[in-house]
From TrEMBL:
Keywords: Methyltransferase, S-adenosyl-L-methionine, Transferase. Belongs to the class I-like SAM-binding methyltransferase superfamily. RNA M5U methyltransferase family. Residues 1-39 are annotated as: Disordered. The active site is at residue 495. Pfam families: tRNA_U5-meth_tr (PF05958). The gene is TRM2. This is tRNA(M5U54)methyltransferase. One of its GO terms (biological process) is methylation.
Length: 557
């Protein structure tokens, strides 16, 4: 099935439409843009706009063309290529401007789930008219804008089906726009949402989760997504920063930018201070920059530096880490990727090498881990109710466990906790962390998460599984075995919500999830069928588009 059909659920648009003719037919170089390089979230947002707004009233839902068909982009699979001319940057026929012109006013119609404005040269009314007459708007992707704004932009380069543009000026501001607290906002690629207040950021994230779910499966639009739980700190929360630099010929060490990438560019922006970092991390950033400049002759191409917060016994005391109560520890930082870092989560202590994975917002971790623990306790309690006949949860599996955060935070009340993790460094930390925190019922094993089902002999009826995979989500191999095993409760924690939504849809297509009384009818009946018992986003990364999402699935049969 062609990619566009698979995504949109509408028929393939048939033969590839002709590329719009470019004005100003002077000799110029063309460049190819691969579908695989496109920002999928821009295409998804355009698709939603097309379906729900632009084509509303003009087509029945079933005959609405898919995005490539509607916009004259090449249909086809991931390898599809569009050929554009390097100059002018926008087909003049569509842009309506001088061929040499690359600055325009545009109207922002929506933000993608990554906080990028999707804009056209047409106002909403003009667009509606254009589309009703079969016309095709050209799409611009513009960061740091807001829905409803009119903005002056400069087109930078073509993506597959849209043009990447820089924001020059906001001509008509959204009432939601506020002054960003950071002086680098608008250039730095690290934060995308500093121009709206925190309540709006939370609403943006709730909506992003809803959209990701509905995009994976229109039936998931019926699911209730709770408002995201806010971060206690909205600035000064990040416990890790990784600034970098690249050396270019003839650049003096003092001129080399050290910081984060410029939004939409492959160049580094010099960042002296980052206000989303904790105080300790900000001190560390200043030292990391000084060290890098002093030692620049020792680098060949450049480097990524690490600055990580750690907790240490109070200076001037002889107390050691293990015996010092968490509340008395002081914040410090390390710049050495091999050194050990200590994080505290409520009464618990976690140690791991500075280069390893650990959640980067300590202020929200007690609430984050507490929610998972409460979900498990709640369902364990419900399962022991006299009419359920099933008994409490006794075994907990912590898949993709890292240094043991969730397994250790949730261990009490279970007979046995088994964690599995592919990184040998993280799994040995997990074992040590279990000892330090007196979690004697916890065992951590090194391996691929999908092998965990070979290792557990516990009854699925009394087992809960926590899944916390990397941003790309889980795998069909893991999910197939999960459903075949059929644990009573599944808590799926995700930093990549679109991948989580895809995985839930995978389970739906296996017949393993029922939504609104509806389920898929695969040839083979699944062992276990789940209902979605809760969707709770958490804001671990204020000021950015990132959101963590926890979905609880409870077995029905
Ligand atoms: C998002 S992190 C979560 C870690 C941990 N749950 C936490 O919150 O600290 C994902 C973890 O999955 C691990 N991982 C990636 N692929 C894996 C696989 N196939 N099997 C087991 N673990 C894997 C990574 O090494 C990483 O530690």
């Amino acid at each position: 099935m062609p990619e566009d059909t698979a995504r949109s659920g509408t028929p393939s648009p048939g033969p590839e439409p002709k590329r719009a003719k470019l004005a100003g037919e002077r000799p110029r170089k063309s460049h190819r843009v691969r579908r695989a390089d496109a920002d999928e979230s821009v295409l998804d947002t355009v698709e939603t706009l097309l379906r729900e707004t632009w084509l509303a009233g003009h087509h029945g839902a079933s005959d609405a063309p898919s995005v490539p068909g509607a916009f004259g982009w090449p249909a086809g699979d991931q390898q599809g290529e569009a050929v554009f001319c390097r100059s002018p940057p926008v087909p003049a026929k569509l842009a309506g401007g001088n061929a040499a012109e690359c600055e325009f006013d545009v109207f922002v119609h929506e933000l993608t789930e990554r906080g990028v404005g999707v804009a056209t040269r047409e106002s909403p009314e003009q667009l509606s008219e254009l589309v009703s007459q079969g016309g095709r708007p050209w799409i611009f992707a513009v960061s740091f804008t807001l829905k409803g704004e009119r903005a002056r932009i400069r087109s930078v380069r073509h993506g597959w089906g849209y043009t990447q543009a820089d924001l020059l000026d906001v001509v008509e501001k959204s009432p939601l726009r506020i002054d960003a607290p950071c002086k680098y906002f608008g250039q730095c690629s690290g934060c995308q949402l500093q121009h709206i207040g925190y309540e709006q950021q939370l609403e943006f994230k709730r909506h992003a989760v809803e959209r990701a779910l509905a995009h994976a499966n229109p039936l998931f639009a019926a699911l209730t997504v709770l408002p995201p739980l806010p971060s206690p700190l909205q600035l000064g929360y990040r416990t890790k920063l990784t600034p970098h630099f690249e050396l270019r010929r003839h650049e003096r060490p003092e001129d080399v930018p050290i910081g984060f990438m410029i939004s939409g560019q492959r160049r580094v922006l010099d960042i002296e201070d980052c206000i989303i970092g904790t105080d300790a991390v900000r001190r560390g950033l200043a030292e990391a920059r000084r060290n890098a400049r002093a030692n620049m002759a020792g680098y060949k191409r450049g480097a990524t530096l690490i600055v990580r917060e750690t907790n240490v016994p109070p200076s001037g005391t002889s107390g050691d880490l293990a015996s010092t109560p968490n509340a008395e520890l002081e914040k410090s930082y390390t710049l050495d990727p091999r050194s050990w870092v200590v994080d505290v989560v409520g009464d618990l202590k976690f140690s791991y090498p500075a280069s390893s994975f650990f959640q980067n917002n300590a202020s929200i971790l007690p609430a984050f881990t507490g929610y998972v623990r409460d979900e498990l306790t709640k369902w364990s309690g419900k399962l022991t109710a006299p009419d359920t006949n099933s008994g409490a949860l006794r075994t907990l599996v912590d898949a993709y466990c890292g240094s043991g955060l969730f397994g250790i935070a949730c261990h009490s009340g279970f007979d046995k906790v088994i964690g599995i993790e592919i990184s040998s460094e993280s799994i040995s930390c997990a074992g040590e962390n279990a000892k330090v925190n007196n979690a004697t019922n916890v065992e951590f094993v090194l391996g691929d998460a999908s092998k965990i089902f070979e290792k557990t002999s516990a009854s699925p009826d009394n087992t809960a599984v926590i899944i916390d995979p990397p941003r790309k989500g889980s795998t069909p191999d893991f999910l197939d075995q999960l459903v075949a095993y059929g644990p009573r409760v599944i808590v799926y924690i995700a930093c990549g919500v679109p991948a989580q939504a895809r995985d839930l849809n995978y389970m739906y297509c296996q017949g393993a999830i029922v939504v609104d009384g509806q389920s898929a009818s695969p040839k083979a009946k699944p062992t276990a069928v789940y209902q979605v018992a809760g969707i709770q986003p958490f804001d671990l990364f204020p000021q950015t588009y990132h959101v963590e999402n926890i979905v609880t699935l409870v077995r029905k049969n």
